[in-house]
Structure formats: C-alpha cells, structure tokens
Amino acid sequence: MTTKRIAVAVHTRDPITQAGVTSQLRPRPEIALTEWSETADPAPEVVVLVVDAVDEDVLRLLRHITRTGTARPVLVAAVIEQKSIVDLAECGAAGVIRRAEAPPEHLVHVIGTVAKGNGHLPSDLVGRLLEEVGRLQGQVLAPRGLHLTGLGARKVDVLRLVAEGYDTADIAAKLSYSERTIKNVLHAVITRLQLRNRSRAVAYAMRQGLI
Questions:
Q1: CA distance readout (Å), 149 to 35, 61, 69, 95
Q2: Model pTM?
Q3: How far apart are CA 25 and CA 31, in angstroms?
Q4: In whole angstroms, what is the distance from residue 98 CA to residue 78 CA?
Q5: Which helix (DSSP H) or strand (DSSP E) does residue 95 occupy?
Q6: Beta-carbon contacts of residue 111 (< 8 Å; ≥ 6 apart)
Q7: Which end of the chain is more exposed for a tag (fewer CB within 10 A), N or C?
Q8: Candidate from 40-44, 108-112, 166-170, 207-211 with smallest mean pLDDT
C-alpha cells in the first residue's frame, strides 16, 4: 500500500539555507517537495518557514500563509523567545521547532503531525503558552465578561443552566430574561460554534472548562 506523500514547500531568507533544508527533505518518501505559489502543483499542504529569529516580518509572513491558502505553516527558528509564543499561535503557526532541535527525522515527524491537523510546540514552551492564555483570560477578558471562546458571561450562564437540566422557561425566570431571549442566546451559541444542538453546546462548554 502506497502512503500518500505530503506536499511541502520550503521558504527561507537565504539560498544556502533553502538548499540545505530541501536537500534534507527531498529523499524522504513521506514528502513531496513543491513550490510555495498560487500555481504550485501540487499545492503545498505544509509550508516550512526557516528563520533566525521571530520578528514582525516573520509574523506578517505567517499571517499571509494562513490567510491566502490552505497550507499550514511550520516555523523553524534559531531563537524562539518565550514572549513570542502567543504571537506565533495568533498568527497561525501550526508547528514550532528550534533549529537546533530539527534534524530531518524530527522535522518530518512535525510536518506529518501538522499535515494531519494537529499542532506541535517544544515542550518547554507549552507551559508558557498556557500561562499566557490564563493571564489573558484572567486579566483582559474576564473583567469584560468575556471568555477565550468569545462567549460572554450571559451565554455561559445559559449553558450552565441547560447543563443542570433546566428548560427554557426556568432559565428565563432564573436570569430575568424572556424565553425568546434565552432561545436567541442558545441559537447564537450553537451557530457561532457550528454545533448541531444545545447538548453539543453544553458538551463544548464543559470541555472548555466554562461550566
């Protein structure tokens, strides 16, 4: 059985690095090297972006990759500062690797992980990302009645009461809203999160730790 090869484009800031990375990936049976362009055939599934450090140009390029196509970016950087990790996630970096930790075997593994729709971070940066997400929720969003999902406090309250088994009339009475308002809130949540019904919305809220 032939394994489907992953279409990968490599983008660097200098021709020597470009040649080095492509020469490492070209012999790999899992990889099909392609160009990063609108007319590339096959179109890249993953773009490997190799840089020295994370700066505004790199973040801008990551945004461009994620907004102009379906390719998912893997960033390989010589230096990755902890303060940059949230910016990288926000700009769409699906995989992040330090250059010193990117031998061909590991790079191919990360490319495969990202191509499947998953993400990758160096283990020491995962904790930093979680800390920053927690800080954002606690210091920025929570005082404004918001959550990282974009759900406001009222929506979360409605989902919590649904989870406790209350029907629309009971929820309306408890929160001092009309039944129509409660139905509208539930419809807005289900539509926003692209879920099928209120049970799925409750399950989602529980997984996210909102209720």
A1: 35, 25, 24, 22
A2: 0.63
A3: 7
A4: 6
A5: strand 95-98
A6: 6, 8, 30, 31, 46, 48, 74, 95
A7: N
A8: 207-211
Amino acid at 196: R
Preceding omega of 104 cis (within 30 degrees of 0): no
| β partners of residue 3 | none
Helices (H), 69-152: 85-90, 104-115, 123-135
CA-based torsion, 67, 68, 70, 74: positive or negative:
negative
Q: What is the pLDDT of residue 168?
A: 87
Q: DSSP secondary structure string, 34-77?
A: --SSTT-SSPPSEEEEEEEE--HHHHHHHHHHHHHSS-EEEEEE
Q: In the structure encoding, which two tokens stand for residue 107, read together?
A: 């790079």
In angstroms, the CA 183 to CA 38 distance is: 44
The three-class DSSP label of residue 33 is: strand
Question: Residue 169: CB partners within 8 Å, gap ≥ 6?
Answer: 179
φ and ψ of 71, to 5 deg: -65, 145
